[in-house]
Amino acid sequence: MSLPPAIPRTLQRYPALGAALYGAVLAACIATSWVTIAQVLHQRAGLAAATDFLAHQQQRWPAARSTVHAGDVPEGSPFIAGQTVTVAGSELLQRVSRAIGSVGGRVMSSQVDVDTARHKPGFISVLVNCELDQPGLQKTLYDLEAGMPFLFVDRLEVQVPESAGASGLARMHVLLSVSGQWQEKP
Hints:
It is a single chain. The protein is α+β, with helices and mostly antiparallel strands. It has two domains: 6-63; 80-184, Alpha-Beta Plaits (2-Layer Sandwich). Helix content is 45%, strand content 23%. It has helices at 6-13, 15-60, 85-101, 134-146; strands spanning 80-82, 106-113, 123-132, 151-159, 172-184. Strands 1, 2, 3, 4 and 5 form a five-stranded mixed sheet that branches. It is elongated, with a radius of gyration of 38 Å. The protein starts with 5 loop residues before the first helix and ends with a strand.
């Protein structure tokens, strides 16, 4: 790239003009560098302030921190497993029966419903008639809905015997419908 002939002649005639032009370009480069460094330092100070604020808030509100531990998440598949829908229905019935039996309840009758006309495709339902006391019913419902596989209590009917009185410790007759999604196991 060549300069027009008038510029080199002007710079030869006025050497101070060339030095001033060089100084101006150098000052512009220094100013640009200074502004850039100042912006980086300002952003860094803002980040440090935000980090301090977050640490302060986490100390102030410990419940807001994420406290999920590996032990808090139930193990297992979220789906009812089985090679066929019949096997999966049996698996669901066993799961519900174990939950009722673990609290001292007694299963009187049960029925597996694999008919998809009343439910969404892929869902299996179990209807169980059982006897439980009130604390056992609470533990059973929690066990079914909080564990794996994901199960849903669709229907709950409780009949308290008249002889229970005010204590409420008598065994209740419970009709419980529980459903879950089936995933074919290879």
